[in-house]
Amino acid sequence: MLDADLAHERDYVRGLYTRLDELREEKRSQLAAVRKAGAIGSSQNVSERDAFAAMYEDRLAQLDAVENRLVFGRLDLDGGESQYIGRIGLSTEDLRRLMVDWRAPEASHFYQATAFDRQGVRRRRHLILQGREVVAIEDDVLDSDMLTEGTAQHQGEGALLAALNSKRTGRMADIVSTIQAEQDRIIRAPMAGALVVQGGPGTGKTAVALHRAAYLLYSHRDRLKSAGVLLVGPSSSFMKYIERVLPSLGETGVVMSSVGRLMPGIAAVPEKDPRIAALKGSQRMVPLIAAAVANRQRIPSADRVLEVEGYRLLLTPRQVRRARDKARATGKPYNEARNTFVKILLRELTEQLQSKVEASGSGNTTDRSYLAEDVRQSRDVRVAVNLCWMPMTAEKLVAELLGRRSILDAVAHEFTEEERDLLHRPEDAPWTEADVPLLDEAAELLGELDAATGHEAARREAERRRDLENAQQTLRNIDAALREQGIDGVVEAEDLVAFQQEPEVRLTAAERAVGDRTWAYGHIIVDEAQELSYMQWRLLVRRCPLKSFTIVGDIAQTSSAAGASSWGRALRPFFGDRWTLEELTVNYRTPAQIAEAAARMAAAAGLVVSAPKAVREGRWDPIVERVDAGAVVPRLLEVLPEELEAADGGLVAVIAEAPLLGAAREALREVYGPRVGGGAGSFEQDIVVLDPREAKGLEFDAVVVLEPSALLDHEYGKVGDLYVAMTRPTQRLRLISEGPLPAGIEQGKRGRG
Ligand SMILES: Nc1ncnc2c1ncn2[C@@H]1O[C@H](COP(=O)(O)OP(=O)(O)OP(=O)(O)O)[C@@H](O)[C@H]1O
């Protein structure tokens, strides 16, 4: 009976792959045919052909991306029918459904049905594939009648446990086949408004955030395809860790960015000094930047004589003030209002010149347009006008504000001497993550430097809109039957417009969004959101005026001095009370013994943690070792072979603060050479040495924490750092310490060493 079931599933799955191959072949030959037709014919024909080509290319890419674990589930329903659940929807040529996309509404039962709330499901079956072959099946029988009917039961380790025990590769894997009910509810929550997902370590917040992005793109395709989804994470190493998950879910409309990359053209480095991060993240930066902008508008202290074509004109403080007030009254950003300011002054100076020329009775040069040009060209006038109102870029404004002590002193009245010292930095220092929101704030107040750039962008946008309308018309003309063959929704007018543009400007919404600071995203997903400062939130809300957000994080893991200690406090300035909270309560990463040790340490340090329940017991208790002074790194070298053996080909991380971090890395490199990764972005190697901030969001089979008490720093709430470090392992945790052990660890010590 069991074998018969397995044989049946193998057969069915073979059929699914055959259909997949057929569709791939079909799209490939359709694409070839369209390409062969070349670019001849009327423009309508050409654009129709482009529409097909774009459609086939897109579909092919999607079909290629789902090769692995194409199908992973089957539901047997009350009506007697069965439904297969997989990465995409598949139908036969005559539109009989073979497999349902995991994001479709009917697939939600696969994740949510329980014995208490069956939702019409009698049995849920997990199909475990190796390559294209079903190697095992596992059943959850939800309808007790089915048990008495003598139906065979398949049991194994459990699809979930198998996934959780698998070795880590340094890249996150998708969880489509084992999404749990509480996670599924969040993934499928309505898109409008702000949803906060609070969850302790390892509860799948990152996984949920990524799958939610895929779900939203599927279910709100129309809106999100053109506006895009922005996914923000804490660091570039974290982005690297998650970057392959989404394509494997078959999604492309997502812009992924670390907080340091949110300003086009700027790649910021982390801010190392927590005091600077806290200060630059605070709300007090808003009036400071505004003051810095206003400071660039100066009223001269005395009359200024300007020479134009041999005539002496007078620029008075009163004149400048009046022009400035009128320009400010336009309400436009600084650079745009400057145009008004310049126009007023030039007009007044031209009038002066005109009366002087007329008074001097020197012939017929009084044509006003000539005089206006003389005024405009005059070096004196240009210098004087610029001194009163300098054209300004955000980079220049912030670099000078923070880099020139005289400017800082002139505008930072509300800051103490000590705070100004913190803000002060060399003018050419690299931008840090804490500077990015200041640049954004400045850019917002300054507006476009060159009005022409704005006009050009507007012209291109208008052109794009016109092309979009044409493309929509083309799509309406496309044979409806063709679109029904499972290729509907694959090409949108947006794609077509992008396709029709010159190759160098043929960009998806996501690609266009990356380069445009003023892009309004359809939805923003923020991971590790507890780390964001007031100023970073301000920037993000600007990127999504509709305030459609998924905010994912764990308040207890905050390590940034500028980060949040409560969701309410962090979000109120931007969302008021209009946000909903969902909680994830099960830890899928860390074995129970390790999770409990971390929770005990956190509680003893006074950190309120949600301490999710671990889904499994581990094979090993945490190992806590005290060593002699100076013996931490030697001990690390001694125990590493044991850790590597236990990790069995998986990843071992060493987490420490400087200077131990550098010492450990050096010592390990001597022994293990290129197997040792040096921190952010290098976890292709099987030994990774990094600090707790870099470790945030990541996970490893085994973790060794050096000198745990060095990861505690109450002043900046860095208790979270040790908590983060202790909750990274999927199998083993070892602490090596020469100093006193942090409270809670000693109490709960269950070491072998
Ligand atoms: N339903 C699931 N099925 C299989 N694996 C899961 C599931 N949910 C979570 N996991 C796994 O658990 C681990 C932790 O998930 P994730 O990194 O998303 O947690 P997190 O809440 O973001 O953690 P942290 O806040 O500690 O960084 C990952 O390996 C993830 O793949």
From TrEMBL:
Keywords: ATP-binding, Helicase, Hydrolase, Nucleotide-binding. Residues 178-591 form the UvrD-like helicase ATP-binding domain. One of its GO terms (biological process) is recombinational repair. GO terms for molecular function: 3'-5' DNA helicase activity; ATP binding; DNA binding; hydrolase activity. PANTHER family: DNA 3'-5' HELICASE, UVRD / RECB / PCRA DNA HELICASE FAMILY MEMBER. The keyword Transcription does not apply. ATP binds at residues 199-206. One of its GO terms (cellular component) is cytosol. SUPFAM superfamilies: P-loop containing nucleoside triphosphate hydrolases. The lineage of its organism: Bacteria, Bacillati, Actinomycetota, Actinomycetes, Micrococcales. PROSITE patterns: UVRD_HELICASE_ATP_BIND. It comes from Sinomonas atrocyanea. This is ATPase AAA.
